[in-house]
Each structure stands twice: as C-alpha cells, then as structure tokens.
C-alpha cells in the first residue's frame, strides 16, 4: 500500500481516500510506528500528513528517522512537509505570518510536481511555522505571501512536499498534485479498482471460510448489504442472511431487502417478524439512551433466535454448525477504534444491530479496508440495485430515535409518510450525492396551531435535518434550494394530516449531532 502517516489530526483518512481515488490502495499508519514496522508493510510510497503541532515544540509528534532510509518515495503535506524538511537537513522557523484558508500560490519553478499547472493558483493553507531552508538537493517550486518555500522536490530521492493541503477540495489542483507525485515522481502505476478489490476479497473469504456455514445480519443499510453480497459471491449458499423487521424501518425498506436485494443477489434470506416484540418493549419509553438499549437487546434476542433455529436445522441436515458471522465494518471504524491517536471514540453505538458478542462466531469482515464510497462502488459492480447502493446512512435504532417522545405505531406511521415524501423530493431534485443524509424528525410531544382549508388544526411539527459530511464525525447543514424545501413542506402538510408545520434544522455538527436523539 501507500502508507499515510497520521500525525494526530483528521487529515490522514482524507488523504488515504484521495490516494485511492487516484487508483492506489492506501492505509493509515500511526507516526509512532518504527521504521521496521513501516518496512514490514511493504509501502510503495509514504505520505506524511498534516498535524496540529509545531515541529520545533518539545513533544511534537515525531517520525522514526529510519523511515527516510527505506528507499521509498516520500511526500510531505503541511506538518509532514516540515518534518521532511527538518529530518533531511533543512530548517523550520516560526514566522509571524500565519496563513489560514484560501491563499494565493505562485509557482516559481514547476519541476516535476507542478508541471502543467497554472503559475498562479489558490491553495488551502493552515500553518504558523514555515520551512526556512530546504534540505540539500531539493528544488524550491512555489511561494505564497506568507512563506518563501511552499513546495519542494528532489527527484533523485523521489521525495517532494507541499506546505498546503492538496487533499481538500479548496486547493484548486490538489488532486493533480497527489496524482503527479504518485505517478511521475514515485513512478507507481495506478490500477487499484473495484474489480481488483472484489477479486481479492472473494479469494480471501474463500480461504477463511472454506466449506463452513456463514450467517449475516442484514440491516437494510449499504454496508451489510454489500458485505453479504461479497460473501455470497465467494461462497454462495453457505451464506444465510437474517433480517430482523423491528417495525422501525422507513417506507419500503423491508421490500427492498426481501425482494430487490434477494432478486439481485440470490441470497438465502430469513426474515424475523419482530414488530410486536419491539413496540411492546418500547411502550412508554421516551429516553433516547433507554430506547437504544432496548432496541439493542431485542435485536440480539431476535438474531440469536434466528441463529439458533438455523443451527438446529443445519445440525439435522448437513450436521454442521454455523461458524462465521459477516460484519460490514468499514475502514474508518477500524482506524477510529484501533488508531489510538486521541480521536475521541464517539461511535461505539454504531454497531447496534450488529454484534451479539456472546455468540461464538469468527468474524468475516470483507469491507474492513474500505471507505463508504468504495463500498458503494463495489455494490454497483456486484449488481446491487441503486436503491440499496445509494441509500443514505440510517441509524440502527431506526425511526425510534427520530420520534422525540414515546414510540407508537401511529407515530411511526406519521413519520414514515413524511420521511418518504422528503426522500422522494430530495432525490427528484438531484440532491442525493450532495446530502449525506436527511433525518426527518417528528416532534411528537409538540403541537402547534395551524389553519387548513377553513378549519383550525392542532398538529405536530417535523424537522428536516439535511446534512453534508464526509464521514459523519463533522457535518454542515446542506443548503437545499428553497424551491425544493417549499415542495417538501407543501407535500408533507397536505398529504400527512397529522403534520401542520415543517421546520429546517440549520445547525452544524458540532455543536449539534446529526440525529436529534
Ligand atoms: P450523530 O447523531 O451521532 O450521528 O451525529 C452520526 C451518524 O451515526 C448515525 N447514528 C447511529 N447509527 N446506531 C447506528 O447504527 C445509532 O444508535 C446511531 N446514532 C446515530 C447517524 O444516523 C449518523 O449517520
């Protein structure tokens, strides 16, 4: 892989993603890894990411200097650019000219790295220190008002770096910089694609599972759907999928799983009808954490029940128990739970509907190395229907945490209808790619006065919560065009009798979370 060194900010994952977009498989590695650990992962190239510290501060995140002697091409970004400078004999100094945000860049000497790029361009900067002397053998390529040395390269050593952040979209030719480095300076071929991932994973799953039985819980979401499809591609009918209908799903989701998904994949599916159990357990509960606990517990019970039935059947038939459980774990979860570099773990609740830990299965996790958009690309490649592949993230506890107040069948029905309208209109307006997800939240205990036709109404409000995000850790509210908002509002208030008001949530994350509960 191309290894992206994490110096403790959130840049590393984004860089890893951009490198994959450039057609090379990449992984994140902590800066504390030794040179031997770097070497053991057989890197094709190493990219040093940005970080929040100053290289000259005591205790600033460092890098084993031996990494520079591995003979591997190295690219430095921001903090990584400065680490490269000081490690190879250059210098970094604190300047008074802090640059933050969009900054004009002048290319003084394009070299290989900036060849073919405009002489003047806008890049995105975030630094207080600057490289004050380039290491010997390096050519300086560009300057900004705040730093004379904004980029350098040494082609003989296959090293280069930039002070700006090429991975963010605000840097005009950022992706081109990364691609040029990988292709022209590092000399790598860019041929990592969905097909190659599928072939590799299918082989790996076959090796892991052999001729044993496998079980997978389908949530209706993208990750479990694609994970199951990959496993099915690898071991066919050794896989059984279990879908628990807890009654907290959105309109048509059960159908999407039971019909569309089964038709396009041919997987064997067992549906557990658990609506009454779940709603019974949720009766009278309005505390969000309490709801999550109940749903998690009931889910595990339902899943265990289905698994036990399957085991019993299998024992009578082929005489073989189920040994493997498929999980749709993604790469960001792996980095966040194992990275240990101080990123707060806010996501422990994200596997509700996933892991009954006391079941003794070995895990099959074919998506562990992938980002969400790559999972979608693989799903398409495997022929999954677009309604499933392009589905926006949906929380395990479902609509239960989008009803503020007690969850009842009637309230679920109201919310389901409003949600279906919002989704249909956002899709029709072509906004699905721009919007990460758009929770519709029913304020079930709030009523307000309205007027409709010639009568007074006293109904509930729903909140639209469209957000844009790269990974759900941070988000901004999406600027949905007024016309689209108007259409959604009109349709919901006309078509869903119990709702007489539609409001828009204009809070970013932080401070708001994406969901209301
Ligand atoms: P928040 O509300 O924490 O949501 O900003 C971040 C992302 O996580 C989803 N989410 C959940 N997913 N179980 C899940 O499986 C949960 O309990 C849960 N709570 C939030 C949310 O939809 C968003 O994508």
TrEMBL record:
Reactions it catalyzes: XMP + L-glutamine + ATP + H2O = GMP + L-glutamate + AMP + diphosphate + 2 H(+)
Annotated EC: 6.3.5.2
Record-annotated GMPS ATP-PPase domain positions: 192-391
Pfam families xrefs: GATase (PF00117), GMP_synt_C (PF00958), NAD_synthase (PF02540)
Enzyme's top EC category: ligase
UniProt-annotated binding residues for ATP: 219-225
Active-site residues from the entry: 78, 165, 167
Known pathway: Purine metabolism; GMP biosynthesis; GMP from XMP (L-Gln route): step 1/1
Keywords: ATP-binding, Glutamine amidotransferase, GMP biosynthesis, Ligase, Nucleotide-binding, Purine biosynthesis
Subunit: Homodimer.
Function: Catalyzes the synthesis of GMP from XMP.
The protein's name: GMP synthase [glutamine-hydrolyzing]
Species this chain originates from: Brevibacterium pityocampae
Lineage, highest ranks first: Bacteria, Bacillati, Actinomycetota, Actinomycetes, Micrococcales
Gene this protein is translated from: guaA
């Amino acid at each position: 892989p191309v290894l992206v060194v994490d110096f403790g900010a959130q840049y590393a994952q984004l860089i890893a993603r951009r490198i994959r977009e450039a057609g090379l498989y990449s992984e994140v590695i902590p800066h504390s890894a030794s040179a031997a650990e770097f070497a053991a992962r057989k890197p094709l190239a190493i990219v040093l990411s940005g970080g929040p510290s100053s290289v000259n501060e005591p205790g600033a995140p460092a890098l084993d200097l031996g990494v520079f002697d591995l003979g591997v091409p190295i690219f430095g970004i921001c903090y990584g650019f400065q680490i490269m400078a000081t490690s190879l004999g250059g210098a970094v100094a604190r300047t008074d000219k802090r640059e933050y945000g969009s900054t004009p860049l002048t290319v003084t000497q394009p070299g290989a790295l900036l060849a073919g790029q405009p002489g003047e361009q806008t890049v995105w900067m975030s630094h207080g220190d600057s490289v004050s002397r380039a290491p010997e053998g390096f050519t300086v390529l560009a300057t900004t008002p705040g730093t004379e040395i904004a980029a350098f390269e040494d082609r003989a050593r296959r090293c280069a770096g930039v002070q700006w952040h090429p991975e963010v979209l605000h840097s005009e030719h950022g992706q081109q910089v990364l691609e040029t480095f990988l292709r022209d300076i590092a000399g790598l071929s860019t041929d990592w694609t969905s097909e190659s991932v599928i072939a590799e994973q299918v082989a790996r799953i076959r090796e892991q599972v052999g001729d044993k039985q496998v079980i997978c819980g389908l949530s209706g979401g993208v990750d479990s759907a694609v994970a199951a499809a990959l496993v099915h591609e690898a071991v066919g009918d050794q896989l059984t999928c279990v879908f628990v209908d807890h009654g907290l799903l959105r309109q048509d989701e059960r159908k999407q799983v039971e019909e569309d998904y089964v038709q396009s994949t041919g997987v064997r599916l067992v549906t557990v009808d658990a609506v009454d159990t779940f709603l019974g357990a949720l009766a009278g509960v309005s505390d969000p954490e309490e709801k999550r606990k109940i749903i998690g517990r009931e889910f595990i019970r339902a899943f265990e029940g289905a698994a036990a039935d399957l085991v019993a059947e299998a024992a009578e038939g082929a005489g073989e128990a189920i040994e493997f459980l498929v999980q749709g774990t993604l790469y960001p979860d792996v980095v966040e739970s194992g990275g240990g570099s101080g990123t707060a773990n806010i996501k422990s609740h994200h596997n509700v509907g996933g892991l009954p830990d006391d079941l003794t299965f070995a895990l099959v996790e074919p998506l562990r190395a992938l980002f969400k958009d790559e999972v979608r690309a693989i799903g398409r490649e495997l022929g999954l229907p677009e309604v499933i592949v392009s589905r926006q993230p949906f929380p395990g506890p479902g609509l239960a945490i989008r009803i503020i107040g007690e969850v009842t069948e009637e309230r679920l029905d109201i919310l389901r209808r409003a949600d279906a309208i919002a989704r249909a209109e956002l899709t029709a307006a072509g906004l699905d790619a721009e919007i990460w997800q758009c929770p519709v939240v029913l304020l079930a205990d709030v009523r307000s006065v309205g007027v409709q036709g010639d009568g007074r109404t006293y109904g509930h409000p729903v909140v639209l919560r469209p957000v844009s995000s790269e990974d759900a850790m941070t988000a901004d509210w999406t600027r949905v065009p007024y016309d689209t908002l108007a259409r959604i509002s009109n349709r919901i208030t006309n078509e869903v009798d119990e709702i007489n008001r539609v409001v828009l949530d204009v809070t970013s994350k932080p401070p708001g979370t994406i969901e209301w509960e």
